[in-house]
Description:
The structure holds two protein chains of two kinds.
Chain A: H1 3-24, H2 40-49, H3 54-69, H4 111-120, H5 124-130, H6 142-154, E1 158-161, H7 162-168, H8 170-176, H9 187-195, E2 200-204, E3 214-217, H10 219-222, E4 230-235, E5 240-246, E6 257-258, E7 261-266, E8 271-278, E9 292-301, E10 307-314, E11 319-322, E12 325-328, E13 334-343, E14 348-357, E15 363-372, E16 377-386, E17 394-403, E18 409-418, E19 424-433, H11 436-444, H12 449-460, H13 462-465, H14 470-483
Parallel strand pairs in A: 2-4, 3-5, 4-7, 5-8, 6-9, 7-9, 8-10, 9-11, 9-12, 10-13, 11-14, 12-14, 13-15, 14-16, 15-17, 16-18, 17-19
Antiparallel strand pairs in A: 1-2
Chain B: E1 2-11, E2 14-24, E3 29-33, H1 40-48, E4 53-62, E5 65-66, H2 72-77, E6 80-83, E7 90-94, H3 95-109, H4 117-130, H5 135-139, E8 141-142, H6 148-162, E9 166-170, H7 178-191, E10 197-202, H8 207-210, E11 215-220, E12 223-228, H9 231-243
Parallel strand pairs in B: 3-10, 3-11, 6-9, 9-10
Antiparallel strand pairs in B: 1-2, 1-4, 4-5, 7-8, 11-12
Helix pairs in contact in B: 6-7
Amino acid sequence: MSAQQDAAAHQAVESYAGERYKYGFVTDVEADSAPPGLDRDTIRFISAKKGEPEWLLAWRLKAFERWLEMEDEEPAWAKLHYPPIDYQDACYYSAPKSDSDRPKSLDEVDPELLRTYEKLGIPLQEQEMLAGVAVDAVFDSVSVATTFKDKLAEMGIIFCSISEAVKEHPDLVQRWLGSVVPYSDNFFATLNSAVFTDGSFVYVPKGVRCPMELSTYFRINAANTGQFERTLIIADEGSYVSYLEGCTAPMRDENQLHAAVVELVALDDAEIKYSTVQNWYPGDADGKGGIYNFVTKRGACRGANAKISWTQVETGSAITWKYPSCILQGDNSVGEFYSIAITNNRQQADTGTKMVHIGRNTRSRIVSKGIAAGRSDSTYRGLVRIQPKAAGARNHTQCDSLLIGATCGAHTVPYIESRNPTARVEHEATTSKISEDQLFYCRQRGIDEEDAVALIVNGFCREVLQELPMEFAVEAQKLVAISLEGSVG
Amino acid sequence: MLKIDNLHASVDGKPILNGLDLEVHAGEVHAVMGPNGSGKSTLAYVIAGREGYEVTDGSVTYRSEDLLAMSVEDRAKSGVFLAFQYPVEIPGVGSATFLKTAVNAARKHRGEKEYDAMEFLRLVKEKRAALGIDDGMMRRALNVGFSGGEKKRNEMLQMALLEPALAVLDETDSGLDIDALKVVADGINALRGPERAMLVITHYQRLLDHVVPDRVHVLAQGRIVRSGGSGLAHELERSGYAGLGLEPSAAA
């Protein structure tokens, strides 16, 4: 496929994903919201609203019972500081805003937000969607969506909202949901299991190579599904899929607490590539507002020669707590984690990965780039565990931090546990600062200070940016620049 | 092109330049020579606008504008180029990417269309061949792991691409073997032209064997103590700075 076709396909799939959500989710829930607070009735309400089968309601309730017992298990080990969250104060189910509550036009939208959209080069129509303006025909072409839906279906690929999958493909969902992140996994994942609202579902059958990047892009979030997202991707034997999540444009959301769960399953010889760009509202310069993002992402290489690759660009949220992990069960399976985490102003990020080597000759690679500016704190926290049977396992970790200014912090917390003497584990870490010499050199060549910072930081992140699909990479570079605005001078 | 009047400048409160006068016209190449610590690099940094180099008196006029009132990047965009004595390494940033960003910043400033990747690569190919720079070097991170000669050649390439109106070369010849020195000299000579002024700052006369200046100035203790034609450089070579009756400074 040529680059152009690729881009066209990519765009089309985005629209298609949007269509999916427009019909698969929004129209189902036109009704009212649940009152704030969380009890068994809230969960029954959510489940009923979504017309779920009994087994799923039972699973949610089981998770809820477990969550109640976890009162003292809210993770406190991360290098994050925030006031206690009142879980009874949050709203766990709300219908999308009605048109009368939304801004009528872009004139009513925060100019700061519009300025950023402008810089990212987002078309006017999409700006309206992102800002939640009440618009009618949002998506261009139903026929394109249909074409791609047909094409995916022809190949046996299922790509839909998880709500729809529960209805259309209950056996698949029941078999795999919670198989990688059990309902009892951790405080936030358990909460998610009880109250998840929506998310994506992907199944790629044996031997099928998904011909296009599957993308939720930002349209999914525009419909307010972001709060308790649940995503499940299964790559059957010998299949391949690349999935893109998120949005470079800043998203406003009145729900401060986000707790998503993503589960990936790769069977024999299958490969899943999962890319994320996260740019939720980070709060203002003084740290007011901003999203708390507590995410559990985990992939299992269940089969031999399977491969799971995580790539993330984390620039948003007031708090990021996120450790996309790989369970390397199959012999010769491969796990990768490529990460860029940028914090500015008062943001805090504690992010990293877990690579659990179980099978023989399993390999993992970790490349983490943390950039801190303002008064922010960026922590890499990563675990590499070699189980006794993982003979010949190999890991290489590279962990670099870049500081901008003198009031931010970068921290590296690696955990290495090796129970097999034939394993080889390597860890490299560096910390550097953008030097005054570098900035002066760039500026003397006519490059403005902020552009110079962006250039230097993009250079620092290059190894990770290279892992992103082409279209995403270009946007991510712009995003890096915008995230660090006002960090120098 | 450049007119410096009674320039006084300090670094960390310590006076370095003490009433420097200098005028360079378009089409001229001037050499500024002087012992270590005489203020040569300070002069270069003041012209470029580096922070920490405080002008306490005097004026610098560039194309009838007050240069000192302009920001570092605005000076650069309006045609002031400084070839660094120690070019800075920027890991991860490809040399070609850096060059393209710089060239497009200047083009944008002049209201010209920015080059796309293909146009720019063609242009670079043309310029780098003359400087003996291979394609591999363009793909490496800027100055990272470059030899001394490669770094200076890269400075010359940047100068050739940016086509400045005023080029200041701060001891570009230091630490170069004779081949690299020749490359640098060729780079400078190739850019000589009626529209361009150049200020070649150097400690040694040897670069001036290859780049024959229109004027030579001797800088000592922060001011120009002697000016003359290119013959002055040879005189210095023979008699040394001490022969001019100049005390070697404490820093020498």
